[in-house]
Every structure is written in structure tokens, then in C-alpha cells.
Amino acid sequence: MLNKPVLAESLIVFVIVLFVHAVVWDRYSWCTIALAVQAFYVQFKWDRLLQLGGAVFQFRTAANSGLLPASMVIPLLGIVMKERCKSAGIVYFERFGIVVASTGMLVALFLSVIAVGITKPVPTNTCILTGVAGSIIIYTMKHSLTVSEVIEVLEVLLIFVYLSMILLYLLPRCFTPGEALLVLGGISFVLNQLIKRSLNVIEGRGDPIDFFLLVAVVGVVLLGLFFTVLFIFMDSGTWISSMFFHMMTAVLGLGVIMPWLYRLIQRNPLFWLLQFLFQTQTRVYLLVYWTVLAASACGVVFYQNAKRSSESKKHQASTITRKYFHFIVVATYVPGLIYDRQLLYVAAVLCLAVFIFLEYIRYFRIKPFGQTLRHLLCLFLDERDSGPLILTHIYLLLGMSLPVWLFPRSCAPKGTLSGAGALVPYAGVLAVGVGDTIASVFGSTMGEIKWPGTKKTFEGTMTAIFAQIIAVALILIFDSSVNLNSSYGWILASVSLVSLLEAYTTQIDNLLLPLYLQIMFM
What we know:
This protein is mainly alpha-helical. The protein has helices at about 5-25, 25-50, 65-90, 90-120, 125-145, 145-170, 175-200, 210-230, 240-265, 270-275, 280-310, 320-340, 340-365, 370-375, 390-405, 425-445, 460-480, 490-505, 510-520. The protein starts with a helix and ends with a helix. The model has no long low-confidence stretch (mean pLDDT about 85).
């Protein structure tokens, strides 16, 4: 029997795909629709494999495969980026958007082929659909991409295959197939871009903050892989291992990551970063303000743990308590988006690197803070943290930051887009910081009418839509760079569809919702 929430989630994704291609219809539209149809069928094969334990790796069990919503994200991002840059006359980034879309389609298709290949008996109809979708995609790529672009797409696919085999083996139950597609596909693309740009460095070409993002992401991933392999052969919880961890982190940071970044930006990375952070008085004020917010977030963690110690060992943080961190993140990001988006961009990269590094310390039980972090953070675990890593806070940061990082600055006159596109950097704030938070708080406290097959409530979803509309109005008041040009109907439709997706999806909503809202706004 078909799962009703999965059908509803799929229907919402199909509507979003059709909405996008009603505005942007070209040869890639046929590819996207074909990919969506085959992903819809294949995700039920993945769901069956997960239920029977027949998947190659151990995936997160408290959710469905999420293949369809995840398969659409990267292709749609590439397509809307292509259209935006085409209208701005930036040919380089127009071609880059085509490469992104093609890569996303091929990676998603590969994951579908894996599911079809390991399903017994072989699903004939699904095989035919996958073959037809693959033929359409490959035929379109053949007539759209240059030889160098085809090689680039295949490079990303190869990196994705190897990363999947390594990380899904090392990190069981951390991802669903859809989440693995998004996370590992994104890391694969970033790694390929970094290698490509490192081999073709032209002095003065490229924005240093873009290089900073690429090097930071690849650096922390390589650091994690290195220590994971190392601690297979030695106990990570001893003082000797901990000293070795800190020493090798310094060696890899100063001996590999810093020289790599120096090669890309052609200046000392530490001096550049310090000069960038304290360049203006506004940046100093923002940094002081963010430090106070970070201290208050730490205060909440310590207070809740003290409360657990005094009440009960089984005490867990409530939904409202966890959503308090969403309010702190909104208070962090909104001033940065209004006053200095470049500073917010770099600060978010630094926070991501720090969050992942602290997770390494917790996971490997590195002294002196590893065991303390384990004790402090276990209070905030939920069903999505079923694997060895705690990722929900990292997903929250990613959900807020990705619209800022993926904003096509080079294709935006004066640093902003017109119409609904002006809200693209705010997609994370609206979808996660406002919508998801309000839906969760009001739904859990006052909601009575549940959406069929889910724990989410009608009241929570409607309140979330209303809250996001109010947030858009406040953005118009306080951010003079935003000009919506009467695109209010599209904004309402975008917010409503993404809020409905939040009600039905079992994937990590902090990661999925901002990307879909960004796609709709672009």
C-alpha cells in the first residue's frame, strides 16, 4: 500500500517543479520532468529496501528515502541560476548553471540506478522509466555541454561515488538516501570546483570569500576522513591520542589548508581574514552583537543541562526549548543580511568549520572537552540523530547559510535581484527561522487538526504561512535593497508550497526547505 504522506510530499514537489518550468521552459525542462517521474517510482523501491534491510549501507530508519525531493534540488538550482545569469548577460555563470543542473541530474540518476539494481526481483517498469529518463538526460547533455563540461560532470560523479562508499560506510544511520544525495553531492561539487580552480589560478580572478568557503568545506571533510582512518588503529579517548589530534590539526591547518588558500587568494589568509573582519565599524558592532548571541545560546545549553541534573536524568529539551536556537539564529542572520552580507557569508563559513570541528571532538572523545560535549548535547537529541554524529545544529546552520552562499552575486545588478529574487538571501530565515519554528511551536501547543498520516497540524502550517508573510513585510520595511515589484502572488504561492512540504516531509527540513524556497524565489 502506498504511503499517503509520501504521496502528498511527492505531489507538492511535482507542483514546485511545474511552477518553475511554467516560467522557465527549455530543453532542460523535459530532463527535469523525466527525472522527477522516475525518481517518484524509484523512491518506493528505496523505501522497500530500507524496510527490509536490503540497502547496501545503513540509512536513517525514522524517515522514508526522500529520493524525489532531494533529486530535484540541484537540477532546479542549476536551471534557475542559468536563467538568472542568462538574463544578466553573464555567459560564464550561465554555462556554470548548466553544469550544475547536469551534474545534479546525473548524480540523482546514479542513485536511482543503484536502487533498481539491488531490488529483487528486478522491477521491469521502473527499469524502463529509469532507462527512458537516462536517455533523455544523456541526449540533452550531449547536445548542450562542451567536452570540458562533460568531463567536469563526470569528475563530480566519480567523486560522489567514492565519497558515498567511504562516508556511508563510516557513518551508518546518519542519512537517508535523499539526504546523502544532497550532502555528498554538494561536497563532491565543492571538492571538484576547488581542484579545478587550484589548477587554474589567475591572479586577481575570483572573490576571496568564495575560495574561503571552498577551502573551509574541503578542509574540514579531509580532516575528518584523516582522523577517522587514524583512530581505527588507536584509541581516540586517551590523552596521547588527544594531543596527537590537536597537533595534527595544527599541522594540517597551517601546513596544508593555509598554503592552499594562499595560492588561491594570493595573500596571507590570516591577515586577509583579520583585515576583512575589522574593516568597518559596522562589522565590529555586528561581531560584538553576534558574540553576545553566541554566549546566550551557550547559556541556554548550560541552563538546560543544570535543569536536567536537578530534575531527572531522563529529562529531554522540549520542542519550544530547541526552537529557541532558531530564534537566536534569526536574530543573528537578519542584521547581517541587512547591513553586511559579505561579513555574514564569511562568519557563517567560520561557524560551520567550528561546528564540525567540535563535532569531531565530541565524536572521537578528544580530551579535555570530548566527554563534556557528549554530556551537554545529548539533551537536545531527537529521532533524526540516530547515527554516531549529531548533525541537527549543523543542518540548521547550513539551512540558514546556503541561500547566502548560493546567491548569484555576479548575476545580480548592484548585489540584489528584482522581484521575489530579492528575497533569495532571506530564504533560510523565512523557511527555517520563521516558518518551521512557528509551525512547530504553535502546532505542538495549539494544533488539533492533523494533516493526514503525519503529526503536523493544519493550524501550525497556516500560522507558519501567516508568520512568513509578516516577516516579508518587515523585511520590506527594514531592508531598502529589497524591491518586490508586485510579485506578491508568487511569494505567497512559494511560501505556501514550502510550508506544505514542511508538513509532509520526513527529511531534514532545516536543509530541504530553504533550498526549495530559494529555487521558487529565484
